[in-house]
Amino acid sequence: MDSVVLGERAWTDAERKAYKLPALSGAGPGPRRGPGRGGRVRRQHPEVGHRGPERETGSRVQPSAPPLPPGPPPCPRPKLVFHTQLAHGSPTASIQGFTNVQELYMKIAQAFDIPASEILFCTLNSHKVDMLRLLGGQIGLEDFIFAHVRGQTKEVEVTKTEDALGLTITDNGTGYAFIKRIKEGSTIDRLKTVCVGDHIEALNEDSIVGCRHYEVAKKLKELPRGVPFTLRLVEPKKAFDMIAQRTRAPKCGEGKVANGRETLRLRSMGGATVQEVPDKSEEGAITRVDDLLESYMGIRDLELATTIVEAGRDKQSTEEFAQALDSVLGDFSFPDVLLCDVWSAIGEAEREEQADTLASAAPL
């Protein structure tokens, strides 16, 4: 028996006659209308004259403007290429593509096919163990880099007869602390086997590789008086003209470059940036802060001093300065008295620069 779908109700022929429903044309075999209310099929009208994306403006529909053509690609920054040699003698190699000291050492090691762990420190524009030319956080774009690698290992027994040993410690940024200064007439100065540039590898057989300079200085400062201790030192490999040479670094001017030159600033966190060298005021403040670091902590670190001075830029009080310093160098836990002296040193450098500026502008 045939049935016809009306909405959602199927009627037989007998029911259709019983309820006196009109006959439905097209019943029987053949295609039927699809399901839905009243068996209707919704038709879709084809689009005519399609004009692309449109936007409404009030009651009118207007075509949108075509997209702008892409602009020219940005000009690539020129690659910074530096020349380097091993300080004891080697061919010249070119390196590029580093953003911090650790990557710099890796590039130098790859260029000369040596382990990066062999490099103790680098100097700029001199192959000698010259702490005035020690590579810190900045490299002049025309500077020549000399890498000083591990030489002989030696052990020295020292008895601390004074509170201070007379050592100033720095580090290379990759875990090697070394001697930057020896105070004349001090306990260490009397031991002629200890030299500026020697890497301190162990203290009483305890390795201190990986320690920062301030950690090593603290360990040495805490040693008791009158008790002998042993230092294991690694001296830089020397060229023939450097054998038996012992240098004592002057006090100030570490790593400075001439005014008007750009430098590559290497940072422990973040990428390297090309920037102008500090102005006279900032340079004076950096030198004063570096002196204070040596006085209070027994370390010299030009990059650390630069970071401290930058933290004090545009600050109005010691409280603001302390907060800014804690946000970037919280691991150091600087004593309050050092912070006050540093703040004063920064202010004195700025006032001296202002006085010099006024004097130069005064009529003759």
Automatic annotation (TrEMBL):
<dbReference type="InterPro" id="IPR056814">
    <property type="entry name" value="GIPC1-3_GH1"/>
</dbReference>
<dbReference type="Pfam" id="PF25083">
    <property type="entry name" value="GIPC1_GH1"/>
</dbReference>
<protein>
    <recommendedName>
        <fullName>PDZ domain-containing protein</fullName>
    </recommendedName>
</protein>
<dbReference type="InterPro" id="IPR036034">
    <property type="entry name" value="PDZ_sf"/>
</dbReference>
<feature type="compositionally biased region" description="Gly residues">
    <location>
        <begin position="27"/>
        <end position="38"/>
    </location>
</feature>
<dbReference type="Pfam" id="PF00595">
    <property type="entry name" value="PDZ"/>
</dbReference>
<dbReference type="Pfam" id="PF25082">
    <property type="entry name" value="GIPC1_GH2"/>
</dbReference>
<feature type="domain" description="PDZ">
    <location>
        <begin position="155"/>
        <end position="235"/>
    </location>
</feature>
<dbReference type="InterPro" id="IPR055349">
    <property type="entry name" value="GH2_GIPC"/>
</dbReference>
<feature type="region of interest" description="Disordered">
    <location>
        <begin position="1"/>
        <end position="78"/>
    </location>
</feature>
<dbReference type="InterPro" id="IPR017379">
    <property type="entry name" value="GIPC1/2/3"/>
</dbReference>
<dbReference type="InterPro" id="IPR001478">
    <property type="entry name" value="PDZ"/>
</dbReference>
<comment type="similarity">
    <text>Belongs to the GIPC family.</text>
</comment>
<feature type="compositionally biased region" description="Pro residues">
    <location>
        <begin position="64"/>
        <end position="77"/>
    </location>
</feature>
<feature type="compositionally biased region" description="Basic and acidic residues">
    <location>
        <begin position="44"/>
        <end position="58"/>
    </location>
</feature>
